[in-house]
User: Fold these one by one.
Assistant:
Number 1:
Amino acid sequence: MKKGVRFKILVGIGVLLVILLIALLSIPKIILVDNDVTVNLEEDYIEPGYKAKVLWFDITNKVTVTNNIDTNVVGNYEVEYKIDLLFDIVKKRSVIVIETIPPEITLVGEESVYVCPQSIYEEEGYEAIDNYDGDVTDKVTLDVKDDMITYIVVDSSNNETSKTRTIIHEDNVAPNLELKGNESITLTLGSGYSDPGYTATDNCLGDITDKVVVEGSVNTNAVGTYTITHKVSDGVNETSKTRTIHVINGIATLGTENAPGVIYLTFDDGPSNSYTRIVLDTLKKYNVKATFFLVPKNASLYYLIKEEYDSGHSLGIHSMSHTYSVVYASDDNLYSDIKAVNEVIKNVTGSYTYLYRYPGGSSNTVSKNYSTGIMSRSASVIHEMGYHYFDWNISSGDADGRNHTSDEIANNVIRNLSKSRYNVVLMHDTHEFTAYAVEKIILYALENGYTFAPITMNTREVHHSIAN
Ligand SMILES: [Zn+2]
């Protein structure tokens, strides 16, 4: 080939390349700021920006932008940037709408569960809720190990959450021990005793009655209080219960008048609607005779006065109104109060009584407010009127206006009992705690060699010092 021809070809190629380069540079270009964009659910999509140019001319305003983004719906979207020419220039941006909040798992039952040894935990249930997917409970997977269950759930945006439940293979519930029959039993000397029995169950072991250990014994030939202890263990926890057996010297025999160790139980202010009944039944159970200093205000309870009398208890006069301002207003008021009560007693029982107890006791000072010297004057003539009056040397403390337990009332009496004198005990059959203290006092007394008697005209009077 000639030199001139080769040169022409090279020039031709060169010209073509220049034309091609110019053509390429003349194609409009769209330039995006950033490429793919991620948007959080329900947040606005913000356009990161774009430019368009051809050669050195800015033609950004020729670009039309369209998108189908819905930021309320998780997914992949596109933004399209287009310049409409003879042929379209198009550029696309990918936008991903995501949510990042993992589901929440809620366990039914405790996060730490006790299960009997050798037992398998029975799933109590769970629930998984996702802010976007809703209920995803059915997507929860369980990783079950011996002592731990892991609950895992992943939502549609790949957010994962997990929760664990710890399984403790241990019996943490004490056995249940039930004594059949009463927890307190009273026997008379020489009678036989057989334990009424018991049952024991355990949450893990079932019936464990045969594992109950019984400690203690009862000697029914010796008066006293016996304690039988029942214990049962499930290997970890122990339960125990006691039964108290009172062996008493038969029913009470009547105490010798004024003898050391005699107890005169006296009940003031009754009869009362509910509590006199309890007192009478308890006295009858142990054949104990007592004394009732009456406030017979309520005629519908006179049948109780009759029952007291018919049961061999002594009746005494206390007051018709028990209102100090009335009873102690004058000597006449005092004597007519005494007589009014005695008329009721006569009407109900057929006989008068000559046993008397001053409202507030003979040492009261409240009467000073109404009549100075009324206690001294009346006490000096009351014997001439035929009456014997009785204060007390043991107070049960049941009339201080406060609430008490029957144990307190019984203990107030018991700790003051003495075998070196006769004991006149002040109580009121107008309180529930007093009514239920009576049996405790009687049991203690019978186990400890005391006797009971009703006050009679032969009983030596117990007097406080007159203070008005
Ligand atoms: Zn009284």
Number 2:
Amino acid sequence: MQNSSNATTLPMDAADGMVNEDRRGFVKKLGVTALALGVVGAVVECGRFLKPNVLYEPSRVFKVGEVNQFPFGSRTVIEGKAVEIVREKDGVYAISLVCTHLGCLLKPVLNDQEIGYSCPCHGSNFSPKGDVLGGPAPRALPWYDVYMDNTGNLVVDASKENQKRTKLVV
Ligand code: FES
């Protein structure tokens, strides 16, 4: 009987050699690729290391508006600043709305003469002047420096605590 197939058959040793060459080439390419990826990763990380990892925060000194925007007896929360401007007959002050326990944002308590601020996280309460009335808060709410600039706007400097709790007379 005659073999009708046209396929050429290689001797067994030659076929094994080709398979080994293919496998060797593949492993070599894999190694080169892994090495290249490692070098690229190291270069990228070195580049990130050289660039300072800085977060830029907004200024803690900010205008809140003209004084006549704050009528006598008003308490005005400044949106996005965690500060409330309180205007009384004898002056204006700015009080922090950040709880001194773990930093939650306080909610002003409206229509209550005793509790000025309440913390939604763990229940601390503060007087309208910021003194601790109850809860785990360790200290009173800080007052910030307030001054009037030469255009008549009130400016809060939240980087400076008003230790003596003095009001700006306007
Ligand atoms: S964060 Fe306000 S009581 Fe805990």
